[in-house]
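Journal club side-thread
Mid-discussion, someone asked how the predicted structure for our own chain would compare to the paper's figures. Pasting it here so we can look after the session.
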Amino acid sequence: MLTLKQLAAIASIIFLGNFYPAAGFAKPPQEQLLVGKWMHSHQIQTDDGRVIPQKKTSIEDTGIKATGEFFTDNTWVLNGRKVRSSGTYRWVDSEHIEQKVLESNVAIQVGMLSIKRIRVSENRLEFIVTHDRAEMERYLGPVKPGQKRPNETIITSVFTRVGTGNP
């Protein structure tokens, strides 16, 4: 049986959790901001510190146009003309999330686990992925004679919030 002191402590915890989320019971702001629907707007590629100009084709022409959505239960979905995938995510720290692909129309992606640096604000979301030379060679194979490959490639995928305000 609980003592009066124990009941008071439990009531205080419940009260603080419901009425004072800033007291440490709410998710950090970036976690709250991530939840919602996002439209892919563009991508920036940097090779060895140099921004690589992207082709002047529209997002619709490339098939990259996609809508992603993040949910409070730590799941996500991505849908576009040429891409469909979904999975789970978790925050590694205040600047990184780990994503696991559970379903995808690209079979090789199923089961993939990746850690992405993330910047999120009210209306802008950026996923930043850094690939070093060894990783690129694992996925792309060795450099062919006469070709060059950077030592580091950074891909920043930029999304804008669909609708207005935080969901």
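Post-session note: Residues 4-19 form the longest helix (16 residues).
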